[in-house]
Amino acid sequence: MRLYLAVAVLMLAFVAYTEAQEETIEQRFAVFQDQMAEMGKNLAEKAKTTFEQFQTSDLAVKSQNWFREQYESLKAKMGEIGQ
What we know:
Layout: H1 2-21, H2 25-55, H3 58-82
Family: Belongs to the apolipoprotein C1 family.
Main location: secreted
InterPro entries: ApoC-1_sf, ApoC-I
């Protein structure tokens, strides 16, 4: 009888220990929230870096200069017409 009682107590202790080791739903959501926040930060940093690289790229600079020249040319023509 003692052996059965000892085995039962050990089984209860083992079950209590394993249940204590499992994450609760709250802990899982907290970990998920942290992972999503980290992913959002990484994505924002990558987007910022990509945008900065594009702004300084040769294509962007040439396009910006071309539009500026066209605007100045149009402004000069409108000034001539107005006089």
